[in-house]
## 1
Amino acid sequence: MTAETKPIVTRFAPSPTGYLHIGGARTALFNWLMARGKSAPAGSQFLLRIEDTDRARHNEEAVEAILDGLRWMGLDWDGEPLSQHARADRHAEVADELLANGKAFKCWLQGDELDAARNEAREKNIRFTSPYRDGGEGEGSFVIRLKAPIEGETVVKDAVQGEVRFPNSVSDDTVILRSDGTPTYMLAVVVDDHDMGVTHVIRGDDHLNNTPKQQHIYEAMGWDLPVFAHVPLIHGEDGKKLSKRHGALGVEAYRDQGFLPDGLLNGLLKLGWSHGDEEIIPRDKALEWFGLSGIGKAPARLDLEKMAAINGHFVRELSDKDFAEKAIAFLPDDQSADVAERIERAAPFLKERVKTFSDAESACGFLTLTLPFEITGKAAKPLKKEGATDTLAALAAALEGVEDWSAATLELAIQTYAETNGLGFGQVGPPLRAALTAGNPAPTLGETLFALGREEAMARIEAAQALVKAQ
């Protein structure tokens, strides 16, 4: 099998300590696209590993939240999620192999003695090197350290960052097995990636400084290196590291705000990756176009307004029925079947008003009113003008005669009534809009009448007349 046809294997490896962070979701997306892309060779896989070696912080609910977030985004993975904790024996086995081959050594330097040795090296501006590196025995418990190169430099060939050089003189011999026999992250991640057949390690550039140490383990075991691709982190609009003050951090927060999976996927994709000047990138195009060469070196800036605008495109692509179903889910409970029908009829006019479905309650407010309802404040002013009730009665009569209850026909009927009676639209439109919407935002009068339906619209006009007369 040639390099060109060798399957691509990527992985997403979150720690189960919280929700699916927006940065983690982007990392998962990039890995998923790499493995699922249309140019990926047959047999390529996207794997999932839960890095749960820190049992004190392990949270099973967090694991499920991460999996749920990935499912909601449509980022399917191959096989069962792998538990790093369950592979501790395999990690220790590799540590023992490195020890037996002289690529690692036992180090009894711990506690205060270790701190003192590190401080001395720091003061002398020299590399900290354990006195046990070249032999010798100590007493009590020990750790196992990798024998890392002392001279020269380690070159990481990164698909995003280019060649990154690390002087070996500033590194030390990494602990790979703790004194209690448990593996460190540095060892576990390399062993797991190798055993899972991972060919591409795509992760945040906060891991870049770990890569030389991990590369040393690969080399010590004689294993092929994967392709490393370190993606710049996501910053807030102020250019600072992303934190809670910048807005939603977890995928579930975006879902709760009414983002669509494809809308969020597109928004995340644009945080650090580009394909020419394309802003709207549907999932199928992302699978066709994605490649590591499109990832920039500069940190991406989270722009919530831009992400909402991108999501709005996908809202507009929904069928009217799907739009209504999703909008209903963001309205107060116990909405009637009539309301659902109104929203579906109004969908062609409302989609432009909804960027995320958190906008649905405002956009659909005029449709959810239940008679009798009050018309107060500024909305009531047109109804208090002289002749308002007569205008509403005459409009009702004109509308009753409309056979084709469509937005265009209804709009024409209102205009015809105004022209026939020598009235300006300002004398006709405001009282009718007040009667139909009680001041809630709404589309054109023709569209509003159509969305409400004949029976509801006529009932609201009649109720408004009664309300004015009773005052």
Note: Residues 94-177 form a domain with the Glutamyl-tRNA Synthetase; domain 3 fold (CATH 3.90.800.10).
## 2
Amino acid sequence: MTGSPVLDAGGEAEDAGSNEALARRVAKLERINAALMAHVERTMDQQGGAYALFQTAIMLEGRVRSRTEELTSLMKSLEGSNAALQAAKDEAETANRSKTRFLAAASHDLLQPLNAARLSLSALADLAPGPEAQTVARQVERGLQTIEDLIKALIDISKLDAGVVLPVIKPVRLADLVAHLETSFRPFAERKGLRLVTRTHDLVVATDLVLLQRILQNLVSNAVRYTEAGGILIGVRRRGGLCRIDVVDTGCGIPEEERALVFEEFFRGTGEGEDAGGPGLGLGLSIVQRTASALGHPVRLHSRVGRGTRMSLELPLADLAPDAQAHPAPVATTLTGARVLVIENDASTAEALERLLRGWDAEVESHRGLGGVVDSLRHGMRRPDVMIIDYHLSDGACGLDVVDHLRRERDWFTPVIVTTADYGLEVGRRVVEAKAELMHKPVKPAQLRALLAYLLA
């Protein structure tokens, strides 16, 4: 009976140890389980995030693809628009060049018969005895002059718009140019009872002489046309490193609402008087603005209605002295007996010119080109005192070829007048290089006679 308690105590002790070990194992398993659960949860979270990223990537890829397709479509549309714009630009440039070529060709074809008509009219006026015939002749002359002015103005605008007018900038002495303008326009001013005054300084500017002269001729012509009383002033003054040329008139002035329009084509002011010499073409100031823009010379307008207008042109001063510029004055001399060689391929113009020259008592020999001259030389043609040669002959020949042949083969350095309906700068340069005088068609008989008299003297 005494052993039983001992056995019970040992069993209890053994059971207590077993429970303790089991508790430790359970706790260990719980820790392992918790760790596994945490690992699984982390794995699930990571898998869930990757899936979300995958879904986002798919969505973004779709958006990128859509935007790329839109951008590609837009680029193709833009390329098509650019191609259409380029095609339109090329077409416009081609049309502009065609217009310039057409006007150049048309002007030659129009000016040729106009030239013949003017020469014939001058010869007719010399034969017409009565005042009524002289009046009719003057009316026809004014009509021809208007046609000529319109053709020349359209040619000028076409060339300026096409950008084919390339200024040749050289030193120009303004005193000589202003004196030439005064001589040219004084008779027109005096005919209207106006005073023409010039105030110049001995300034030399950098510009193109021919283009500047054209600008000032238009400005002075407008001033005379729109002035009924008072006068016109051509003034030149220094302004710092610049020179300012003013053409001032005491005419009707330009209303403020018209000042932005006077440089537009075919715009004619409302204040033109009846004695202005007929309606203007409305192209003068448009040519002025285009030409001044090509030269880089700003044009400014100041006007007061009823008081007058001032047109100002600013030019840079030149550093170098200009080349010698001669403006020959007509020399009074007779044409009687003068031998004149005429080279003109247009039959009507040649006939009219021959008739006019013979009416001035000159001896005339006329040919259509170099071939006729060569044949005449074989038959003993005498050296002419002066030659009047058309620049453009048949089959693309140039009248200067006749000049070169006579100088080379016969050593005849006879004075030459080259006539042409081509107002291109290249023609002018070639004529100058040939040391010849240039007259644009339609030829004015009075100017031709004055030039012949000067050359023969």
Note: Confidence is low (pLDDT under 50) at residues 1-10, 272-279, 324-333.
## 3
Amino acid sequence: MTGRFPARDRVAVVGYAHSPVRRQADRPLGALAVETARAAIADAGLAVREVDGFVGSALLPSAGDHTKQDGVSIVSPNWLAQHLGVDPRYAAGFDGIGQLTGSVAMAVNAIAAGAADYVVLHRALHNPGGRYHANPMREAAGAQQWTVPQGFFGPLATIALPYNEYLQRYGAKREAMAAVVTEARKNGSRLPWSYWAGKPLSTEEYLAAPQLFDPVCKFDCDIPVDGVAAFVLTSAERAADLPHRPVYVSGYASGAPTRRRLPQHWPLDDILGGGAETARRLWEHAGIGPDAVDLPQVYDGFAPFVWFWLEVLGFCPPGEAHRFVADGGIDSDRPGALPALSGGGALGNGRMHGVPQMLECYLQLSGRAGARQREATVGVACHSSPHFGGAVVYSSVPL
């Protein structure tokens, strides 16, 4: 991918809907998805029959041995279209890391190419009950035979390694991470759909939480939840006739590790080096730099990702994010601060896999954030790890 995005600002987000976020929903995931998609279509001022495109990612975001069943534990774009009674011209699912980034790219490209006029993009999350990281393995084969016997498996070990490296390399303290998590929970507590609505977290509560995988504690991890979000996208020309202010897609980028590693072995240098390349692609694609962004929404499925994203995107020098955040640099209530978690993120909403970041960009840039409304014109929504995910640039006016 080289040069500025040819379809920059030619496609816009024009409506949305979000289900309540629950640890376990009282209705099947498919029923929630159909209801949420209908609400998003109506919010965009459209009828279901006008929608001719569906995109999404049906990845089941859960560890352990869980069955994938369409409409129950996952919701594919084709399943959603069928149960809305639509025979779409375009339906596609993104299969990879960075689910929302990939889904947005597919929707934008389909509309820009004329494959569809109105596209519903959805993310439906189901996290079964029980111990989330219970390991059903009886033997470790392949590359995992070298890691599992030593206890190195699952995402907690994956993130604990670079987190420890960062603490040791840059003289950071685990106490500094409290500023990340309490900021996310403060903002999430203000959202009626959030799992943590009305439940902010104090620094004392954070520091008293048990560690799960040194130095990762319980509150450094987003809680597994059930929930659905849906967005409607169309061309900039059609968006002008719809009821809400359009939010334009100005560019996107994704990345994946290139170095051969053992399973889930993510050294800090891989994350920061790969993330710097993801950021370079992003700024080149959108034709801007970090100085143009006033609403960055960094991914925080695990708290250390916030430090990593702030640095690779260029908002902090290398090794300085822990000081920047601890000094109030992302406090959304502080004038002049960088509101990097103003939408609550995953830590403040629940494990909605990048939805909080995309939704906050849409709400703020479309002027629909209500009492939380900020002055912002350019947002960035990040998803997953900087070296194993992606980001999308949104704008309230064509760049």
Note: Residues 11-128+223-395 form a domain with the Peroxisomal Thiolase; Chain A, domain 1 fold (CATH 3.40.47.10).
